[in-house]
Amino acid sequence: AKNQGWAVYKLYVDDGYSASSRNRPALKRLLCEAALKRFDVVLAYKIDRLSRSLKDLIDIVAELNQFDIGFKSCTELIDTTRPEGRLMFHQFGSFAQYERELIGQRTRFGMIKRLKQGLWNGIPPYGYRIKNKKLIIEPTEAKQVRKIFDWYLRRNMGVVAISRELNRLGIKPRKAERWKGTRIHKMITNPLYAGFVRWGGETAMGTHQPIITQELFDTAQKTLRERNHKTRQLRSPNYLTGLVKCGLCGAPMHVTYPGTEPKRRFKYYVCNNRYNHKSCKQ
Fold this sequence. Notes:
By secondary structure, the protein is α+β, with helices and mostly antiparallel strands. The protein has 3 domains: 25-116, Rossmann fold; 136-235, Putative Large Serine Recombinase, Chain B, Domain 2 (Hect, E3 ligase catalytic domain fold, Alpha-Beta Complex); 237-282, no CATH class. Helices cover 41% and strands 11% of the residues. It has a two-stranded parallel ribbon with strand order 1-2. A two-stranded antiparallel sheet has the order 3-4. The N and C termini lie far apart (63 Å).
């Protein structure tokens, strides 16, 4: 900027964010201030600092052009205020996307390789932690995992009932204040707890120690299918869902079923806040 004799209006830095995404706070601020015409040119060290996606690059530069704002790269022959610069912009943009796709391909190959080696990909789930790049059991959490499977099979509790009981006992999940039925469902259907690893729709035998037996896991999957079948048989149109609101807090209401035996079941509407968070006295 100094060599061009330009005055720097502001630096826009997205530390910790990938250039493959447009959902970056500094980029959003840049585009908002571009609409207000606070500057004349956007200067970047390299074109891939603006974005690694060719589509996003074209869209961002087109948006800047609407406000008569140019784009220039410090290390590449790109200056969209000139015809030859616009040509180079599209060429370098294609290379940036090509590099992004290569990185994605190498990442996928690495994930598949780890899967075939029986290694876990990603953040360790509840019940495990990472040590020396391998999964090891977290004893306190593993105890709760076994309890969840026990409640589901031996006590005949549903995923929502299990989440409520864990919340009542003050047992918290990771990075959340309360358990939800969806989280319990993911745990019950995760073969990792039985000694397997899964990624990209493929499953392989893991090298980690299982928390439950494969027999127990298979029984849980069979029970889940049977319960889902019974639920579909009992299901009927709920015409007022989405229409009725709670008279106390104004939250939407949905249908729920008390009891366990089909012949004893009847439907009634309950406030979402009351059902999920118990924050309503309805």
